[in-house]
Write a structure and sequence with these properties.
The protein has 354 residues and is α/β, with parallel strands linked by helices. It has helices at 9-14, 35-44, 47-51, 54-67, 81-85, 107-111, 123-136, 149-158, 166-174, 176-200, 217-234, 257-261, 276-283, 302-316, 336-347, and strands spanning 73-74, 90-93, 97-100, 142-147, 204-209, 238-239, 242-243, 246-250, 267-269, 288-293, 322-326.
């Protein structure tokens, strides 16, 4: 596994070390906007079939890295692999999003949940990580990931995606202890899962807290941030003689960046509703920042997309510690040519050394 890493810009930027230019990767960089992804999905038969087959997961992970000169690969998988391994009956209907046959609604449902063994129930993910590392041959670093305990819990309790989060919020108000027990099992599961990904070759890891932003500030601290802190605290810090940096991304968490930075993570993901200059003031140089182009800017004309990209670069400035990304995932209706332009614009931007 000790192949020399030829491009380590991402790892350096995540640790706030100086780099000659900004590294860039994109959330959901492997996905439906790519014709090669749609072709592989048609062949595999469905999303879960792709996730659970290490050869296919590896092939899809590499698709965006083969097409664009991105500075990182992110494992192709999903945040719902953990509840899938907990036997809740996960299904993805085409165009429908995730559904659980057996959602978690009661104390008794929570009692039944065990911590999945990454070497068994989640072996397909760990095997995919090893395979991707081998196939990448040190081209760029590989990012592993998991959902935050809170965000994964929303899917388990709601039984799928939600607009109002009425079921889990009712549990939060009526039976907070039950919800805490669920979040605790998820935190333990996430620690083992991410550490297994690191042991298999993930060189950085990211926690996706997509739904932390639907909570009040006090609820966010109690039900989301606290469990992410528990996970970050227990992560393997060093592998292959290098630090394994971690990224925490709470969508809609712009007002809480200072608190998030204090849990000991290396980098914060920032969505497009917070200016990076404002985010820098909030975290005061303690963590790196990742983001934050509005994903919809990829629908703009090439000129406007370029201008918006330069605006994001300028809002961070020339200091170390910025990983360019979108403020959330790329959407299926994006033209891959726009992505090529975005990557070229970021990579031709030279930083002025201090
Ligand atoms: O970023 C990457 O390229 C890595 C792969 C990745 C996927 N999902 C692949 C995927 C990652 C990091 C995720 C994380 C994920 N999954 C999140 C958190 C990040 C975010 O986007 O907010 C969430 C909330 C999920 C749960 C999930 N998975 C939903 C709600 C959906 C349906 C919505 C949709 O876009 O279709 C998925 C499916 C999914 N996960 C797809 C991909 C490429 C689309 C599946 C398909 O139809 O081909």
């Amino acid at each position: 596994m000790n192949v020399v890493l030829k491009n380590d810009l991402l790892l350096r930027a995540l640790l706030r070390e100086p780099t000659p230019r900004r590294p860039i990767w994109l959330m959901r960089q492997a996905g439906r906007y790519l014709p090669e992804y749609r072709a592989t999905r048609a062949r595999a038969g469905g999303f879960l079939q792709m996730c659970t087959n290490p050869e296919i997961a590896c092939e899809i992970t590499l698709q965006p890295v083969d097409r664009f000169p991105l500075d990182a690969a992110i494992l192709f998988s999903d945040i719902l692999t953990i509840p899938h391994a907990m036997n809740l009956g996960l299904e993805f209907e085409a165009g429908e999003g995730p559904r659980f046959e057996r959602p978690v609604r009661s104390a008794a449902d929570i009692d039944k949940l065990g911590v999945p063994d990454p070497g068994r129930e989640l072996k397909y993910v760990i095997d995919a990580v090893s395979l991707v590392r081998r196939e990448l041959g040190g081209r760029v670093p590989l990012i592993g990931f998991a959902g935050s305990p809170w965000t994964v819990a929303t899917y388990m309790v709601e039984g799928g995606g939600s607009k109002t989060f009425g079921v889990i919020k009712r549990m939060m108000y009526e039976a907070p202890r039950d919800l805490h027990r669920l979040l605790e099992v998820l935190a333990k599961s996430t620690i083992q899962y991410l550490n297994a990904q690191i042991a298999a070759g993930a060189q950085a890891v990211m926690l996706f807290d997509t739904w932390g932003g639907v909570l009040t500030p006090a609820q966010y601290e109690e039900f989301s941030l606290r469990y992410m802190a528990e996970v970050i605290d227990a992560l393997t810090r060093q592998a292959d003689g290098r630090r394994v940096p971690n990224i925490v991304f709470t969508k809609g968490g712009g007002a809480w960046l200072k608190k998030i930075a204090a849990i000991g993570c290396d980098c914060l993901g920032v969505d497009w509703t917070t200016d990076l200059a404002t985010a820098q003031l909030a975290v005061d140089g303690r963590v790196a920042l990742q983001g934050n182009l509005d994903p919809a800017a990829l629908f703009a004309t090439p000129e406007v997309l370029r201008a918006e990209t330069l605006r994001v670069l300028a809002s961070y400035g020339d200091g170390p510690g910025h990983v360019f990304n979108l403020g959330h995932g790329i959407t299926p209706d994006v033209d891959p040519e726009r992505v090529a332009l975005l990557v070229a614009t970021v990579q031709s931007h030279r930083l002025v050394p201090a």
